[in-house]
Amino acid sequence: MKRKLTFILATLLLGACIGAKASPVEDRNDLITYYKQIFPDIKFEDYIYGTLSMNTSAKSQYDDIMAFPPYAIDLDKGQKVWESPFKNGKQFSSCFPDGGKNVAGIYPYYDKATARVVTFENAINACLRANGEQDLSYGESEMGLLTAYARSLSDGMKINVRVEGVDALAAYEKGKAYYYTRRGQLNFSCASCHVNNAGKFLRGDQLSMMIGQASHWPEFLAGTDIVTLQKRFMQCNRNTREIPLKANSEEYNDLEYFLTYMSNGLPMQSPVYRK
Amino acid sequence: MPIKTIIFLFFIATLNCANLCLAADGVNEKSYGQSLTFDSKKGNCLACHAIPSEPKAVFPGNIGAPFAKIKQRFPDRAKLRAQIWDATVSNPNSSMPPFGRNKILTEQEIDQVTDYIQGL
Predict the structure, then answer these.
(1) In the list A6, A99, A170, A228, which could disulfide-bond A93, CB 3.0-4.6 Å?
(2) Of A99, A131, A152, which residue sits at a domain end?
(3) How much is the pTM?
């Protein structure tokens, strides 16, 4: 009897640790509580700044750079593509409510009809296809520049990703499982770095908290090198010495779904500068 | 023999010689253990551990404890080696990569790193 009780308790504890049976709401609340303990002085709204929120001088340097962003010319290119008419005379704005303003925060969403997660990039390609145009490659700079502008139309919108229904929950759970699974020769999970060691230094790199990470994509790394969120997944996969997956793979889309849900309630800003 | 092959063989020969020379010399043995510890493609221990007694160990990470008084903390060399070989044995949640189990370092390299760390 005693043994059985210990077993039940142990299972419960384990469940609490990895959040195995918790709902998305509980997962998110647990993480918020956890990060509050590690970062008692950082405001929740500032989690969108990642490591910048942990370093006042780096943050003020960042603010200066963002006043005159070095990627302004690149962003103009994205705007031009967004505004250029397709061969049929229509524009991207025709594919989204309100011409594409304040829409990006609901992505990714789970689409019951196609039984898959739909990212904002998927919606861009669906728009191109519906208008008889060619898809753009996922993760490449053309898609990056276009979405940098398209997402900027949603600046300030609060992220509002929904996980409703059994199938949506299953996709969320797959993304979550990916996040917490160790892989690669170095045996890290995403959580090893961004949950367990958030705020610590890996050599010269301080590690950002996971909540807030999905709010500001794409990024211009070093000012001009454009990186989409899923490109960043690839870079982090390489940190663990494993072969990255493909942009727009089902695994990455599920991961993006989970990760973006975790940033719910935080304001979007695109694009941003990062070192 | 194509020139590429010759260059390759020459390269291998130099590598072997370098290894032999290192093995023959105790001082170099230590510095070899140190370079394995520092090398970001090998131990990369500095990613997580500081070495307060070593001025060359700049910008270390702080995920693991600094390497200091290791002999006091690990009087048993086998225990120290085991920690490096697979840290998840003593702590399943450890963030430290399992250098032996996942063959990040060879058995010989683990010995060299162990010897170097134990001297700190």
Answers:
(1) A99
(2) A152
(3) 0.89
